[in-house]
Amino acid sequence: MKHIFSLPLLCTLLVCCTTMDQMEPIPYKVFKYEVADFSSFSKLELNDMTLSDYDYLFFFLDKSITFCMAAIEYTTIDPFGNPIQASGLVYHPLNRQSKGVIEVMPMAHLETNGPSEDFLAVEGLPIFQGYTVIIPDLLGFGVSRGTRPPFLMRENTGRVTYDMRRAAAQYLWDQFQYQLPSETIIGGYSLGGSAALAVQKYYETYHSNSVKIKEVFAGGGAFDLPAAFEAFAKTGYSNFSAIPHTIFAFDYYYNLHLDFSQIFVADPPLNSDSWFNGVYSTDKIEKLGEDIHGYMHPDFFKPFDQQNEEMKKLHPCLVLNSVSEGWKPKAPIHIYHCYTDTYVPYECAQALVTKLRKVGGNVSFTSYLGDHLTVGYTFILRMLLYLS
After folding, report:
1. Would you place residue 9 in the very low, low, confident or very high pLDDT band (cuts 50, 70, 90)?
2. Which end of the chain is least crowded, N or C, by CB within 10 Å?
3. Spans of all domains in the chain
4. In whole angstroms, what is the distance from residue 70 CA to residue 339 CA?
5. The domain 28-221: what is its CATH number?
């Protein structure tokens, strides 16, 4: 990448006096900084093709925008309540006034260490719509790599993102005298889809006076975990090992002390130390295979009330971390999902939309043919068109 500039590592105790957040500032430091434009971003690969190969689809992007990319480190809280260093990316336009802020949750980064390592990330495309973009790494990626990822843990996702927002606000004020507006848009696909609604729920529950959500775009997410587990049990098939990731996270952070021999059938049984040690790895995922019967205990394929006692320990955690449960969203939500999604079951979106509409949520639902990956690019395109 070109035009890399060195910045002093910034740690600040100055108060960011914004109408957005009346709170103590959060210390941060910049560990990577670059000025870029579309010529750099066009090298980003989308489905084995570069962004420039999709010019006919992304014709509406403003390719004349120049912007800065900054990877920042800040302090947040892990699911145990302990302080931990986390990181994320901030994109900000340089040659025009920002149209506002959008917080985009990261997809599952299988081969890299998250957005701050990618630097040029597909989640950052709204910069070419003139928006300031904030992308948290979430825990387990970026500077927190090696930490057990709190996979699909709703409350921690919200907290880590909120602290990233605070750090980004301080950075943008210090560097550009840009006051982050209270109004925000939230988006995300796949893992980022469920994270987007987790953040919405967190903001609306704890920070509704300081953060005003305009709308939320969420696609392909595991929004309803009981629905996801039931759908996987029916099909016996999954392109991505979301089930073990979720189980290991819940076992570790909720101190379930699961007997994995009653959860998995691998010989020896899967365990979080040898398979999921805080670093996503494509080769480990491929070893599990796509047939769930190859690694899940036979009881997994029974109805919840007929499963063994070890599996029943997971049920309250599934409900607790489902973004479809226990709230009435205030901001409008746009949901997108693939009919034949083999990564995240379509039933997740159906359950979410049914439950949120039942309590009066303003939820639109768009379904697509295709697969999880191709619909992901459709989701990005739709979100960008909506923002234009």
Report:
1. very low
2. N
3. 28-221, 225-320
4. 37
5. 3.40.50.1820
